[in-house]
Amino acid sequence: MLWYAIKQLVISVGSGTDRARRPTRYTVARRDGFGAQYQAMMSGVAYAHFMNYRYVHTPFQRLDHNVDVAAMNRFIGIPVSGEKADIREEGSALVNSAEIPDIYYTDEVRAILRSWYHSTEKPAVDPEQIAIHIRRGDAARQNLTFRLTSNSFYRQLIRDLEGEYPGLRIRIHSEGQPGDFSDLESKNVELALNEDLRVTFHAMVMAKVLVTAKSSLSYAAALLNENTVCYIPFWHKPLKSWKILEERE
After folding, report:
1. In 19, 133, 182, 184, which residue has its Cα 20 to 30 A from 62's Cα atom?
2. Does the residue 13 lie in any domain?
């Protein structure tokens, strides 16, 4: 396969003493919101696995939006070895920009990420749901229209999902006020707004159907989700198993 040939080419660069000095301990560290940082960590794990490096975890040091750092470090469950990394950052961007991310996010890598994630206590959530992540919050406040998807799109999507999955309740996970989503509510649609971040994220991980937003938060949840993922396109490309939703008005 092409991806395998590329991998063998990359890891075979250098020989003899040069190859013997090749760094083997790799880490990723950045400062941003929880979703962006967690996805970067996931991409670091995937890149290290691809390159036959050993992933050395750098915990969250700071999280935007006044999120509890210690609580989120416990929440994701990635073990800390205390080792010093030889290299950091260089490959995470390759994973995040990959046209075929399955090359990096193999079944084995995703199983490792899930085992860490599920190794720590999680909030109680109802997995029998369609979880729709609607990006609002800071994106709406800053008028980042390229990160937003209109309510009219979601109205049609909800009708489609109700027809395809008649036994599942729909929960909209977002930030804002109920009035921002009044045109989406119905007897089968529930708003889950401004919830604890851990509850929101775990609900998306466990959902029978997850609809992602243009957001690292739901993208990271989708990498952990073992069920059906419906993906709204943005710059981080989908896995092959995900259903692609084309935006339309």
Report:
1. 133
2. yes
Q: Do 61 and 138 belong to one domain?
A: no
Residue 55 sits in the same domain as residue 149: no
Question: Which among 160, 169, 72, 166 is positioned nearest to 121, based on CA atoms?
Answer: 72
Ranges of beta strands (E only) in the chain are 25-27, 54-55, 87-88, 129-133, 169-174, 189-193, 209-211, 228-231, 243-244
CB atoms within 10 A of CB 248: 9
Q: Report whether 215 contacts 147 (CB < 8 A).
A: yes
- Residues of the chain with pLDDT > 90, as a percent, come to 69
Do residues 174 and 137 make contact, with C-beta atoms less than 8 angstroms apart? yes
| Listed residue (114, 104, 123, 23) closest to 76, CA to CA | 114
Mean pLDDT score, 202-227: 97
**Residue 128: partners with Cβ closer than 8 Å, 6 or more residues away:** 168, 169, 208
Which of 117, 148, 171 is the last residue before a domain boundary?
117
Q: Mean pLDDT throughout 209-227?
A: 97
Q: How many domains does the chain have?
A: 2
Two tokens, residue 102 = 């399955």
Rounded CA gap, 42 and 50, in Å? 12
Domain residues for the domain of 137 are 129-244
